[in-house]
Design goal:
289 residues; alpha/beta; Carbamate kinase; eight-stranded mixed beta sheet; two-stranded antiparallel ribbon; 10 helices; 12 strands; 18% strand; globular
Length: 289
Amino acid sequence: MQLRKSFKILGRGKGKGRDKGVSMKKKIIVVKVGTAVLSKAKRLSRHKTGKLDPVFIKSLIAQICKLKRLGLNVILVSSGAIGAGMEAIGLSSRPGNLNKLQACAAIGQGKLMKLYEENFRFHGKHAAQILLTREDFSSSKRIDMAKHTIMSLLNDFNAVPVINENDTIATEEIKFSDNDMLSALVARFVGAHALVILTDVDGLYDPSDKKVIPIVKSVNKIIEKMVEPSKSALGRGGMLSKIQAARIATLAGIKCVIANGRVKDVLLRIDKSSKIGTVFLPALKKKRI
């Protein structure tokens, strides 16, 4: 229970987001949402259609805007462009051909951003699109430019950066594993306080009793062996990629939560320190990997 309290209010604490005796800067929370969470379920089935769910997106944006009113800066890392493109084209399964995937992303990205912009505008905010590739992270100059842009959006324009992989030109996009890795790298380079990965399961399950593990002190080989590489028909990732993202984040001193994005008011419940999802505690000593 004490460990759960250490994650209380996503680090907002007392004093409207200020670090006690250190800084008055707003803390940054990175929220990652995958295609499976953003998609509608088939009628009378748990399987996803790939079609964007506007009701869920409306709820997600409302939660993000409430966190901002409570004194947190929020960055959204969102998948969904390929799924939205598949819906527009009429495809029922994810193409195996890279060029077709890129075409789906090109068609779907605008539809995804339209939904985000409409919902953020309702709350008096802008959705700011930022597309990144793995190549961008190999250049300190590019990452510095991206960081400065993101910080300006957060601090000068009260906007919400919506980050996605630039699937239309990325030739090794699969290495980002449905944006899990991307969200961890973004959290690291902006110096986020917490990374919240929203998925379609309740957290990391203990294979011995099939119950959600509430706290993970460190991501080690034992934890990694608990999950099998997997992916859905719509997404590229699985629990293993989320564990790997949590490892990157926690080694950088960033708290991480993996939780079911379809739980009602999930971000607000995490903010209130509810017993939800799996919390990965930050390393006591930061490391670069």
